[in-house]
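hey so i finally got around to running both of the ones u sent me last week. sorry it took forever, my laptop kept dying halfway thru and i had to restart like 3 times lol. anyway pasting them below in the order u listed, first the sequence line then the structure token line for each. didnt double check formatting much so if smth looks off just lmk and ill redo it

first one:
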Amino acid sequence: CSSATFYWELGLPYHTYPYVLHDISNKHPPVYDIIKIDAIGSVLSIWSHYCLRVSNNGSACISCKNMVNTLKKIMDHAGWHSFGLQCSTLSHLQLCQKLDNTGKLCEQERFQAIHKATWKKLLVIVGTQDVPALHQIFRNANSFRWSIEKTLEMTQKAIAGLYHAQNFSELEIDLANVIYDL
């Protein structure tokens, strides 16, 4: 038997093939061995564990040819995104994707925790101190797309007298003039 060949469509087999399947700790290892890898052509040469090592016409025996269907299933699995898949069946590429996604989730949680603390600070300041033109500070925050950190900073500056909100509406200006005239 000359071994069966299989074209690995996912790119470089060293990066996209789930070699962890062949680990001795795997409870259900594949019933074939990879005997040669053509990285340039992305071709795997395999022998079935049931290979007869004999073939009539010099090609692969029937046991090795039947492993092609198994490899198609493994290739389909290796082409999926890593989300929700067990680490024990992932390729190097999928493991890298999973690590990257986990890092992004940790960063989002850290970012949300920081924002939550900032919102709490702002709520304490607004609830315990008189903030001049507070409604205008929030309007400016919305108009100029300030972050919550910038909004907190400007609120603290307004309390200290270092920031005087502007961009009042005509109604607010008219109301201030009426009160001034009285």
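and the second one:
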Amino acid sequence: MISEAFRGHDQEQHQQSTRLRAMEENIDVRSHTEGRNGLSHERKPVEDINNGHSTYKPVINGVVIGHNGKDHTNGSAPFRSLPISALKQNGLLQNLAAGGDKPNPSEEREDAELEKARQEWEALDNIQPALTEDSNPTPLISFNEALQYFQTTDLGDLLKNIQPTIRRTGLAAIAHFLFGPPRLHRELLEERDLVFAIAQCPVDNSQTVHMRVLQTIYKRLIGTRLDSPRYGPHWENIGFQGTDPATDLRGTGFLGLMHTLYFVMDPETLPLARDIYKLSQHPTQNFPFCVMSINMTRIALQVLREEALSKECNRRQQVVGVLNEFYVATFLHVYQLWKTQQKTIADSGFVLKEVELFAKKNPKQMLRRLEVFLKERQAGGIPRGMSPDPQAQQPSPGLGERGSRAGTGQGSRGKEMHFTGVCDLPPDMEGEARLI
């Protein structure tokens, strides 16, 4: 027992001498212990040896945490309060947030989602609109170009179902023969039949010409260079009743679109078309422009079917040119009546009925009024297209030069005018004047 006490005393003396030598040589003696979360706790002597015993101030990552020489890092006593700035500087908060040396999978996923969200937000600056002025829009199509397409298209199946004249029997047939308008010249029958065949032709989404006609009408009325989707509420802006213009072509088929195309692409009639479109947007006198236009085509077809235009067609030796002008003349009559008499959509049925009756009885007077209106407008200093318009087609035949230009080549299928159409006017709709 005595020997063990001496040995313990010798060891203590040896340790004290070692510490004295270390302090004399300015050597820091540090002991490392394993602390919470696997952090290293270091002890650094900050006081001199007194009476053979040393007192230490424990240090964690270079921060003094106690002054009584007791180590609580591995005990049950909690840490004493430390400055947050000191913890940040020594990386303690970062290590605690990271869960020590082991990564937290849920936090890694959150970091990844945040990084992805940041990248998406930064990418917003690079997003461009789908349609820009630099896009390559569908080129406009002139009436004559669309007409040439139908001149070379096989419409044989549609020709089988046309009704180009009114079937009369008995006394009505005799009275019509004796006192009615003259018959259409034989060389014009093919052109007339083609008009009614086109009036049975539906819109075909697979035909580029059909789509270009729709796009051209929309662009000319709205005043945009950009293409519009095939379906959508934007078609209501130019007076169709729904998202698909094809559903409004009852009774006129594609011929209704061809007449509207003629109206907006002929530089002589374009100013009138824009005036009527402007009136259709009036707060109180508004009406659906394209639906009204289709009704003008329906009236023109019925007048042609009743042979009221045969005399003028024979005189000019053409059918399509005369029908185009009669369509515009009818629209002009509606426009003047609607504007001067302050008509509204509630009056549309009565207006259309009145216009149809007048048109059937006075086709020559209707055409003459249109000719005078356009001449007076031009004489008033307003050029044909209101302003130079590079997109407008060359004037279609008619009104002066049209009669002379129409006299050649009318007997062949390659003549100037043919239409794409819709359906023949159903018998129960004949004579009925209302918005389709």
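quick thing i noticed on the 2nd:
The chain has 17 helices and four strands.
anyway thats it, ttyl
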